[in-house]
Amino acid sequence: MASFTIDIDTTGLTSKLSPDKLTQAKQKGLEYSSQELIRVLMRNSPVDHGLLKSWFLDSLSSDEAVIKSPAEYAQWVNDGTQPYTITPTSKKALYWEGADYPVKVVHHPGIKARHFVEDSLADVNGRLDGYFL
Q1: How far apart are CA 82 and CA 101, in angstroms?
Q2: pLDDT digit string (tens) for 78-103?
Q3: Which of 29, 37, 88, 112 has its CA 20 to 30 A from that of 95?
């Protein structure tokens, strides 16, 4: 399962609130910014259906939020992969429906990186201050 953690430095927040109220305000601001980020991640995900669009808030505290995707391949779609070779491990050749002949080796060109997580973070970054006002 792909996940990432949002840590927001709130040391710059000054308030006349009690420590308990300040903690509640920080948690609420982090909750709002996390929900906005999830909405933008769903919009920026490179497919229009499936697990890659199913981002959710896994855990939330006053200092940190963990956002996850149930798609185990989300990291590879975001970061891309290097070219790689597929070879048979237990048989002499690879077989699949539609292949004209047994295939000994397949050279995969890799997956181009989409960087939709970074794009989503950049989209939300300018609005973070408003959640903590």
Answers
A1: 27
A2: 999 999 999 999 988 988 888 888 88
A3: 112
